[in-house]
Amino acid sequence: MIKRQTTINRIFKVSGIGLHSGREVTLEFLPRREFGIAFVHNGITIPARYDMVADTRLSTLIAKEGATVSTIEHMMAAFYFSGITNCLVYIDGPEVPIMDGSAWEFYQGMWKAGVYEFPEDGVYLKVLRPVEVTRDDAYVRVKPLNTLDITMAIEFRAPVGKQKKRVTDVENAFSIINSRTFGFIEELEAIRNAGLAKGASLDNAVAIGEDSIVNPHGLRYKKELVNHKILDLIGDLYTSGYRILGKVEASKTGHHLNNLFLKELFSDPQNYSIY
Ligand SMILES: [Zn+2]
After folding, report:
1. Which CATH number fits domain 6-117: 3.30.230.20, 3.30.1140.32, 3.30.2350.10, 3.30.565.10?
2. pLDDT by residue (tens digit) across 45-68?
3. How far is the CA of 8 from the centre of ligand 1 (A)?
4. Ligand 1 centroid vs 119 CA: distance in angstroms?
Protein backbone atom coordinates (compact mmCIF):
# COMPACT_ATOMS: atom_id res chain seq x y z
CA MET A 1 0.00 0.00 0.00
CA ILE A 2 1.29 3.45 -0.86
CA LYS A 3 1.32 5.98 1.96
CA ARG A 4 1.96 9.31 0.32
CA GLN A 5 1.40 11.26 -2.86
CA THR A 6 3.30 9.85 -5.82
CA THR A 7 4.01 10.62 -9.45
CA ILE A 8 5.72 8.82 -12.32
CA ASN A 9 9.50 8.80 -12.31
CA ARG A 10 9.90 9.64 -16.00
CA ILE A 11 7.90 10.76 -19.03
CA PHE A 12 6.41 8.11 -21.32
CA LYS A 13 3.97 7.90 -24.23
CA VAL A 14 1.23 5.50 -25.24
CA SER A 15 -0.46 5.48 -28.66
CA GLY A 16 -3.47 3.59 -29.94
CA ILE A 17 -6.83 4.05 -31.60
CA GLY A 18 -10.03 5.35 -30.03
CA LEU A 19 -12.76 2.75 -29.68
CA HIS A 20 -15.45 5.11 -30.95
CA SER A 21 -13.56 7.49 -33.25
CA GLY A 22 -11.29 4.81 -34.75
CA ARG A 23 -8.58 7.52 -34.85
CA GLU A 24 -4.99 7.28 -33.65
CA VAL A 25 -4.41 9.10 -30.35
CA THR A 26 -1.19 9.66 -28.38
CA LEU A 27 -1.02 10.16 -24.64
CA GLU A 28 2.06 11.69 -23.02
CA PHE A 29 2.36 11.09 -19.29
CA LEU A 30 4.25 13.74 -17.31
CA PRO A 31 5.23 13.87 -13.63
CA ARG A 32 3.13 16.31 -11.61
CA ARG A 33 3.86 17.99 -8.28
CA GLU A 34 0.24 19.04 -7.71
CA PHE A 35 -2.18 16.50 -6.25
CA GLY A 36 -4.42 14.57 -8.65
CA ILE A 37 -4.60 13.16 -12.17
CA ALA A 38 -5.46 15.63 -14.95
CA PHE A 39 -5.65 15.62 -18.74
CA VAL A 40 -4.42 18.45 -20.94
CA HIS A 41 -6.34 18.69 -24.21
CA ASN A 42 -6.20 21.69 -26.57
CA GLY A 43 -4.31 23.59 -23.86
CA ILE A 44 -7.05 23.11 -21.26
CA THR A 45 -6.32 21.18 -18.06
CA ILE A 46 -9.23 18.93 -17.09
CA PRO A 47 -9.04 17.21 -13.68
CA ALA A 48 -9.94 13.51 -14.06
CA ARG A 49 -12.47 13.93 -11.31
CA TYR A 50 -16.11 12.92 -10.76
CA ASP A 51 -17.33 16.54 -10.72
CA MET A 52 -15.91 17.06 -14.25
CA VAL A 53 -17.83 14.08 -15.66
CA ALA A 54 -20.22 15.29 -18.37
CA ASP A 55 -21.33 12.08 -20.10
CA THR A 56 -21.53 8.45 -18.96
CA ARG A 57 -23.50 6.79 -21.75
CA LEU A 58 -20.76 4.68 -23.38
CA SER A 59 -17.78 5.58 -21.24
CA THR A 60 -16.77 8.11 -18.61
CA LEU A 61 -16.23 11.48 -20.32
CA ILE A 62 -14.85 14.58 -18.63
CA ALA A 63 -15.25 18.13 -19.93
CA LYS A 64 -14.08 21.64 -19.18
CA GLU A 65 -14.33 24.88 -21.16
CA GLY A 66 -15.26 23.06 -24.38
CA ALA A 67 -12.47 20.46 -24.17
CA THR A 68 -13.52 16.84 -23.61
CA VAL A 69 -11.79 13.52 -23.01
CA SER A 70 -13.76 10.26 -23.12
CA THR A 71 -13.11 6.66 -22.08
CA ILE A 72 -10.88 7.64 -19.15
CA GLU A 73 -11.91 4.69 -16.93
CA HIS A 74 -9.36 2.02 -17.90
CA MET A 75 -6.46 4.48 -17.67
CA MET A 76 -7.74 5.65 -14.28
CA ALA A 77 -7.82 2.04 -13.07
CA ALA A 78 -4.19 1.68 -14.23
CA PHE A 79 -3.27 4.72 -12.12
CA TYR A 80 -5.01 3.13 -9.16
CA PHE A 81 -3.14 -0.16 -9.56
CA SER A 82 0.17 1.66 -10.12
CA GLY A 83 -0.25 3.67 -6.92
CA ILE A 84 0.14 6.95 -8.85
CA THR A 85 -1.76 9.89 -7.34
CA ASN A 86 -0.36 12.85 -9.32
CA CYS A 87 0.10 12.94 -13.11
CA LEU A 88 -0.54 15.15 -16.14
CA VAL A 89 -1.70 13.35 -19.29
CA TYR A 90 -1.38 15.29 -22.54
CA ILE A 91 -3.77 13.91 -25.14
CA ASP A 92 -3.94 14.90 -28.82
CA GLY A 93 -7.51 13.70 -29.41
CA PRO A 94 -10.83 13.56 -27.56
CA GLU A 95 -10.74 9.86 -26.67
CA VAL A 96 -8.30 7.77 -24.62
CA PRO A 97 -7.12 4.88 -26.87
CA ILE A 98 -8.76 1.54 -26.19
CA MET A 99 -5.49 -0.47 -26.50
CA ASP A 100 -6.33 -4.16 -25.91
CA GLY A 101 -9.62 -3.26 -24.19
CA SER A 102 -8.14 -3.47 -20.69
CA ALA A 103 -5.88 -1.37 -18.45
CA TRP A 104 -2.85 -3.55 -19.18
CA GLU A 105 -0.79 -1.35 -21.53
CA PHE A 106 -1.29 1.80 -19.44
CA TYR A 107 -0.29 -0.16 -16.36
CA GLN A 108 2.83 -1.48 -18.13
CA GLY A 109 3.86 2.05 -19.11
CA MET A 110 3.42 3.31 -15.55
CA TRP A 111 5.23 0.32 -14.10
CA LYS A 112 8.23 0.89 -16.41
CA ALA A 113 8.25 4.64 -15.64
CA GLY A 114 8.49 3.89 -11.92
CA VAL A 115 7.09 5.73 -8.90
CA TYR A 116 8.40 8.91 -7.30
CA GLU A 117 7.12 9.61 -3.80
CA PHE A 118 6.42 13.07 -2.32
CA PRO A 119 6.30 13.80 1.44
CA GLU A 120 2.60 14.77 1.48
CA ASP A 121 -0.18 12.33 2.34
CA GLY A 122 -3.93 12.82 1.87
CA VAL A 123 -4.31 10.03 -0.69
CA TYR A 124 -6.85 7.80 1.10
CA LEU A 125 -10.56 8.31 1.56
CA LYS A 126 -11.88 6.22 4.40
CA VAL A 127 -15.61 5.59 4.32
CA LEU A 128 -17.13 6.30 7.76
CA ARG A 129 -20.83 5.61 7.16
CA PRO A 130 -22.78 3.40 4.75
CA VAL A 131 -23.51 5.12 1.43
CA GLU A 132 -25.73 3.65 -1.26
CA VAL A 133 -27.23 4.49 -4.65
CA THR A 134 -29.83 2.29 -6.31
CA ARG A 135 -31.48 2.52 -9.73
CA ASP A 136 -33.97 -0.26 -10.45
CA ASP A 137 -32.04 -3.49 -9.75
CA ALA A 138 -28.59 -1.88 -10.07
CA TYR A 139 -26.75 -0.60 -7.02
CA VAL A 140 -23.44 0.50 -5.51
CA ARG A 141 -23.16 0.37 -1.71
CA VAL A 142 -20.21 0.91 0.57
CA LYS A 143 -19.65 0.26 4.26
CA PRO A 144 -16.67 1.15 6.44
CA LEU A 145 -13.64 -1.15 6.17
CA ASN A 146 -9.88 -0.57 6.48
CA THR A 147 -9.10 -1.93 3.00
CA LEU A 148 -10.82 -1.83 -0.39
CA ASP A 149 -12.97 -4.92 -0.89
CA ILE A 150 -15.26 -5.18 -3.94
CA THR A 151 -18.05 -7.62 -4.72
CA MET A 152 -19.60 -7.30 -8.20
CA ALA A 153 -22.58 -9.09 -9.70
CA ILE A 154 -23.60 -8.96 -13.37
CA GLU A 155 -26.36 -10.58 -15.38
CA PHE A 156 -26.57 -10.72 -19.17
CA ARG A 157 -28.16 -12.97 -21.73
CA ALA A 158 -26.68 -16.41 -22.42
CA PRO A 159 -23.91 -17.43 -22.78
CA VAL A 160 -22.84 -14.92 -20.07
CA GLY A 161 -25.66 -15.43 -17.56
CA LYS A 162 -25.12 -14.44 -13.92
CA GLN A 163 -21.59 -13.90 -12.65
CA LYS A 164 -20.41 -12.75 -9.25
CA LYS A 165 -16.93 -12.04 -7.96
CA ARG A 166 -15.42 -10.77 -4.73
CA VAL A 167 -11.94 -9.23 -4.63
CA THR A 168 -10.63 -8.77 -1.10
CA ASP A 169 -7.12 -7.52 -1.93
CA VAL A 170 -7.95 -5.09 -4.73
CA GLU A 171 -4.52 -3.42 -4.87
CA ASN A 172 -2.97 -6.74 -5.89
CA ALA A 173 -5.79 -8.15 -8.02
CA PHE A 174 -3.80 -8.54 -11.22
CA SER A 175 -6.50 -10.53 -13.04
CA ILE A 176 -8.59 -7.36 -13.02
CA ILE A 177 -5.97 -5.21 -14.80
CA ASN A 178 -5.94 -7.15 -18.09
CA SER A 179 -9.60 -8.15 -18.28
CA ARG A 180 -11.07 -6.71 -21.48
CA THR A 181 -14.16 -4.73 -22.31
CA PHE A 182 -16.97 -6.66 -23.98
CA GLY A 183 -19.96 -6.20 -26.21
CA PHE A 184 -22.82 -8.11 -27.72
CA ILE A 185 -22.84 -8.69 -31.46
CA GLU A 186 -26.45 -7.53 -31.84
CA GLU A 187 -25.65 -4.20 -30.18
CA LEU A 188 -22.59 -3.51 -32.30
CA GLU A 189 -24.57 -2.79 -35.44
CA ALA A 190 -26.81 -0.23 -33.71
CA ILE A 191 -23.79 1.48 -32.13
CA ARG A 192 -21.99 1.52 -35.51
CA ASN A 193 -25.07 2.99 -37.19
CA ALA A 194 -24.88 5.80 -34.62
CA GLY A 195 -21.34 6.52 -35.91
CA LEU A 196 -19.64 4.97 -32.87
CA ALA A 197 -17.40 1.97 -32.17
CA LYS A 198 -15.49 2.65 -35.42
CA GLY A 199 -12.31 1.30 -33.83
CA ALA A 200 -13.91 -1.79 -32.27
CA SER A 201 -12.39 -5.13 -33.25
CA LEU A 202 -11.56 -8.50 -31.78
CA ASP A 203 -8.15 -7.01 -30.89
CA ASN A 204 -9.69 -4.63 -28.33
CA ALA A 205 -12.92 -6.22 -27.10
CA VAL A 206 -14.52 -9.50 -26.23
CA ALA A 207 -17.37 -10.05 -28.69
CA ILE A 208 -20.26 -12.14 -27.42
CA GLY A 209 -22.05 -13.99 -30.18
CA GLU A 210 -25.37 -15.81 -30.17
CA ASP A 211 -24.14 -18.71 -28.08
CA SER A 212 -20.39 -18.32 -27.69
CA ILE A 213 -17.44 -15.94 -27.50
CA VAL A 214 -16.45 -14.85 -31.04
CA ASN A 215 -12.75 -14.12 -30.30
CA PRO A 216 -10.61 -17.01 -31.61
CA HIS A 217 -8.70 -17.35 -28.34
CA GLY A 218 -11.81 -17.02 -26.17
CA LEU A 219 -11.58 -15.41 -22.74
CA ARG A 220 -8.45 -14.61 -20.71
CA TYR A 221 -10.24 -15.70 -17.52
CA LYS A 222 -13.42 -17.62 -16.88
CA LYS A 223 -14.70 -14.52 -15.07
CA GLU A 224 -13.15 -11.97 -17.44
CA LEU A 225 -16.44 -10.13 -17.99
CA VAL A 226 -17.26 -9.57 -14.33
CA ASN A 227 -13.56 -8.77 -13.80
CA HIS A 228 -13.90 -6.02 -16.39
CA LYS A 229 -16.93 -4.56 -14.61
CA ILE A 230 -14.75 -4.40 -11.48
CA LEU A 231 -12.02 -2.69 -13.54
CA ASP A 232 -14.52 -0.07 -14.73
CA LEU A 233 -15.72 0.47 -11.16
CA ILE A 234 -12.16 0.88 -9.85
CA GLY A 235 -11.39 3.40 -12.61
CA ASP A 236 -14.57 5.33 -11.93
CA LEU A 237 -14.04 5.25 -8.15
CA TYR A 238 -10.58 6.70 -8.68
CA THR A 239 -12.22 9.80 -10.16
CA SER A 240 -13.02 10.52 -6.51
CA GLY A 241 -9.39 11.70 -6.53
CA TYR A 242 -8.62 9.28 -3.69
CA ARG A 243 -7.92 5.64 -2.95
CA ILE A 244 -11.19 4.59 -1.35
CA LEU A 245 -11.16 2.30 1.68
CA GLY A 246 -14.44 0.48 2.23
CA LYS A 247 -16.41 -2.65 1.55
CA VAL A 248 -18.10 -2.10 -1.81
CA GLU A 249 -21.00 -4.19 -3.05
CA ALA A 250 -22.16 -3.51 -6.60
CA SER A 251 -24.61 -5.06 -9.00
CA LYS A 252 -25.21 -4.33 -12.70
CA THR A 253 -23.39 -1.03 -12.42
CA GLY A 254 -22.41 1.32 -15.21
CA HIS A 255 -20.51 4.59 -15.48
CA HIS A 256 -23.63 6.62 -14.69
CA LEU A 257 -24.37 4.85 -11.42
CA ASN A 258 -20.69 4.90 -10.42
CA ASN A 259 -20.69 8.67 -10.86
CA LEU A 260 -23.94 9.10 -8.91
CA PHE A 261 -22.40 7.06 -6.12
CA LEU A 262 -19.44 9.43 -5.82
CA LYS A 263 -21.76 12.45 -5.80
CA GLU A 264 -23.72 10.83 -2.98
CA LEU A 265 -20.52 10.00 -1.08
CA PHE A 266 -19.26 13.60 -1.31
CA SER A 267 -22.67 15.12 -0.56
CA ASP A 268 -22.01 14.85 3.18
CA PRO A 269 -18.50 15.38 4.65
CA GLN A 270 -19.47 13.10 7.56
CA ASN A 271 -19.49 10.15 5.13
CA TYR A 272 -15.68 10.02 4.93
CA SER A 273 -12.31 11.18 6.17
CA ILE A 274 -9.17 11.88 4.13
CA TYR A 275 -5.69 10.96 5.31
ZN1 LIG B 1 -14.50 -0.74 -19.47
Report:
1. 3.30.230.20
2. 999 999 999 999 989 999 999 999
3. 23
4. 33
